[in-house]
Structures are given as C-alpha cells and as structure tokens.
Amino acid sequence: MSSFTKLIVVALAAVSVPFVSAQTYTNCNPLDETCSADSGLSKWSFYSDFTTGDSAFEDWNTTAGTVNSTSSGAAFVINEKGDAPTIKSNFYFFFGYVEVKMKIASGTGIISSIVFESDDLDEIDWEGIGTYNYEIETNYFGKDNTTTYDRATYPNVTTPADTFHTYAVDWTSSQIEWFVDGVSVRTLAYEDALDGKNFPQTPMTLRIGIWAGGDPDNGEGTIEWAGGETDYSDAPFSMYVESVKIINYNPADTYTYSDKTGDYTSIKLANTTSSGTTTSSVSSLSSSTTSSSSGSSTGASTATSTATSTGTISSSNRTISSNSTSSTPSPSSSTPSSSTSTASSASFTAAAANVLGLTMNPVVALPIAALFFFL
Ligand SMILES: *[C@@H]1O[C@H](CO)[C@@H](O)[C@H](O)[C@H]1NC(C)=O
Ligand SMILES: *[C@@H]1O[C@H](CO)[C@@H](O)[C@H](O)[C@H]1NC(C)=O
Ligand SMILES: *[C@@H]1O[C@H](CO)[C@@H](O)[C@H](O)[C@H]1NC(C)=O
Ligand SMILES: *[C@@H]1O[C@H](CO)[C@@H](O)[C@H](O)[C@H]1NC(C)=O
Ligand SMILES: *[C@@H]1O[C@H](CO)[C@@H](O)[C@H](O)[C@H]1NC(C)=O
Ligand SMILES: *[C@@H]1O[C@H](CO)[C@@H](O)[C@H](O)[C@H]1NC(C)=O
Ligand SMILES: CC(=O)N[C@H]1CO[C@H](CO)[C@@H](O)[C@@H]1O
C-alpha cells in the first residue's frame, strides 16, 4: 500500500517536514493537463547489478537520500526519522517484466517498496513490511483511485528480512501477475480491475525505496497497517536490492498521452531517428501487447502524431492466459509460465480503510523535460 505514502506526504506537509518525497507522486498528470512526452527505454532489456559500484546507478535518479552500492547490492538505509532513500528509473517502460532481487528491511513499521508508477498515477506495488518477517504485500491502483484500500494481498514469503528473494511482475495489457522466486502468487485480469478502469496501463517508472510507515507522526491507519510505531533507537534499518531486470515490451524513445483517457490505446510510441519519427501504439484488438510493427515512418519535418489505434477496450476479447506476451521476446525463461497458483488464498485486508479520498499535490518541482515529441 505504498499509496499510504501519499497520505504521509499530506500529513507531513501539514507539519512541514518534507521527507518521503515518496514513490507515489507525479510531476504532471496527463489526465489533467498537457505534459511533455515521457522518455522511454528504447531497448528490450535493461539490467542493473547494484553490487558493482556506483556506475550501477547511472540509469537511476536518486529522488531522496543517498543509496550506495555495497557487496550486498544497493543499500537503502534509515538511520533516523525523516530518512527515506529512494531511487527511480530515469526512463519509462510500457508493459513489461520486472524482476527485483531484494532483502527487505527488518524493523517495526519499516516499509521496503518496489513501485511501478505512471504519470497519471497508475501503480503496481510490492511492499515488505518489516514488522512481519513472513510475508510480502502486493497491490495496485488505477489512475490514483484510492477510494478503497482493499486491493492488497499478502502472500507468504520465507523470512524476507533475512533472505534475498526475487520479486517479479509480468505486466501486460490483459493481466498483471506477481511472482515470488518464480512462483506465481497473484494474477489480476484487466476486467477484474473495475472492468479495466482501475487497471494499471500507462508507461511506468520503477521506484525503489524505504520509508517509515510506522513513524509516530503518521496517521493511525498507516501505523496500524505498518504493524506498529517505528522506534528509531532500533536504527539503522537496511534494505538491500541486489539487482533489477526490466524487459520493456514496447520499447520506444518517447511515450505520449494522446488524450485524457489514460487508456493504454491512447499512448503513442515514437522513435526519433535521423530520418524522422516512427510512431505506433498498442493495439486494443490483441490480448497481448503488440510491438511497434505497425509503426509508420514519416518525414522529419512532418513528423506528426499518427495514432494507429482508436479501438475501444472490449473485455470479451480479452483472454486470461499466461501467454500474454506472444509477440514479444518471451520472459518465460525467467518466469515460470506453468505457474498457476493465484492469490486466492491470500488474505485481503482493508487495513486502515478509514483513510479515504486523500489526494496529493505534486511535491516536486517540474523538471525540465529533456525530450519533446514534436521537433
Ligand atoms: C554512501 O557512501 C558515501 C561515500 O562513501 C558515504 O559518505 C555515505 O555515508 C554513504 N551513505 C550511506 C547512507 O551509507
Ligand atoms: C531523472 O533526472 C533527470 C535530471 O534531473 C531528469 O531530466 C529526468 O526527467 C529524470 N527522470 C525521471 C524519469 O524522472
Ligand atoms: C474507484 O474504484 C472503486 C472501486 O475500487 C469504484 O467503486 C469507483 O467507481 C472508482 N472511481 C472511479 C473514479 O473510477
Ligand atoms: C501463510 O502462513 C501462515 C502462518 O504461517 C499460515 O497460517 C497460512 O496458511 C499461510 N498461507 C498460505 C497461503 O500458505
Ligand atoms: C524503437 O526502436 C526500438 C529499438 O530499435 C525498437 O525495438 C522499437 O520497436 C521502436 N519503436 C517504435 C515505436 O518504432
Ligand atoms: C499457451 O502456450 C502453450 C505453449 O506454448 C500452448 O500450448 C497453449 O495453447 C497457449 N494457450 C493459449 C491460451 O494461447
Ligand atoms: C474489437 C474486436 O475484435 N471485437 C471482437 C470481439 O470478439 C467478438 C466475438 O467474440 C467479435 O464479434 C468482435 O468483433
């Protein structure tokens, strides 16, 4: 429930302690305003080995605190109240497979999180609550819809605060599947997320960080969810991330929202080459992401947005299968396609559902966008 981070930011704004820049903010929400294009990961596959030194961070922005490379990987450490070191990929990806090798931090109320976050606040989460050294949380949000906090599941994991585990998500336009050490622990079909309305479907950055959900200044609901108040005399609290692997199912230089729907079919992909701009979009007629084979080339000076898909989402044409990426390099070498167990037995809780309806304002000044779609 990293969206609790939003609540914390709101709470903190009130006492003007600007910590937890958090993982769940946006600098520009394309559903409300016109935003510059997102800088995309233009290759299929991306890998960071955080044991190799500071160069491992070159494709990441540190958005809070300091994160160092150690022999155990990137170290995210809370030494005192207010610490919330966080990194963010400096690119977006659009549907994909993401694998993070992580050891969560131990400590009451300490949250270790892996968050996919888009500009219009679609979100996919893993959160390790340091109070509970036997489980991990999965969660998701669509378009910042935080009216309910009942979407989380808590699959069992063996001593996540003592042991590295591989937390993976396979994210396509038809479903999201969470895996722990290669075993599927949850599958969310597009139509099961309020007929797609709450289904995360826009280009994401990956944000990884640690924060104190149990900070005594947090709301009661947040502290309860985090398993109690954090005692900073127990610090340091350390989370380690050994490596991150990302397969981007729709590589492109830029992603642009062509309207204010937030539908994946509205996202335009573009590559800028010396001879012009190639654009495409993800077809709604397929149950999986299609790569940019439908891209058309246009001359440099006439490069225009040529959305090739205006299809509407038809749930009857969606299949729920694990063959969700047939037109892309299969991630199944790293994800067990035969996994069928779902999180049906995992407990759903509505912890702290009393904290409703809060939204947050951007907390970070708008960065100057480096890339513009129209050139
Ligand atoms: C990270 O490394 C720098 C330089 O070695 C050091 O000064 C700093 O204290 C380290 N930060 C953390 C959080 O360990
Ligand atoms: C990363 O930081 C750079 C430099 O501040 C900025 O231009 C870029 O937009 C950031 N990337 C993301 C994805 O926020
Ligand atoms: C937000 O999600 C809830 C269910 O989780 C739904 O009842 C509500 O209509 C959604 N709100 C919007 C604006 O889509
Ligand atoms: C998770 O662990 C708890 C406590 O050990 C156990 O009662 C429960 O059955 C486990 N759940 C699953 C899905 O294995
Ligand atoms: C952009 O270029 C990448 C790398 O060459 C390619 O895989 C991708 O399909 C291209 N995307 C578009 C929208 O042309
Ligand atoms: C999924 O893939 C397997 C093996 O590649 C194939 O046998 C099966 O028919 C496929 N299922 C669907 C729904 O496409
Ligand atoms: C958009 C699309 O492909 N729609 C098809 C969905 O499937 C039904 C049959 O199940 C077709 O009739 C639609 O044309």
UniProtKB/TrEMBL annotation:
One of its GO terms (biological process) is fungal-type cell wall organization. GO terms for molecular function: endochitinase activity; glycosyltransferase activity. Its EC number is 3.2.-.-. It is a lipid-anchor; GPI-anchor. It catalyses: Random endo-hydrolysis of N-acetyl-beta-D-glucosaminide (1->4)-beta-linkages in chitin and chitodextrins. Keywords: Cell membrane, Cell wall biogenesis/degradation, Disulfide bond, Glycoprotein, Glycosidase, Glycosyltransferase, GPI-anchor, Hydrolase, Lipoprotein, Membrane, Signal, Transferase. One of its GO terms (cellular component) is side of membrane. It holds the Pfam family Glyco_hydro_16. Residues 1-22 form the signal peptide. It is found in: Cell membrane. Residues 10-234 form the GH16 domain. Residues 273-341 are annotated as: Disordered. Belongs to the glycosyl hydrolase 16 family. CRH1 subfamily. This is Crh-like protein. It comes from Talaromyces proteolyticus. The lineage of its organism: Eukaryota, Fungi, Dikarya, Ascomycota, Pezizomycotina.
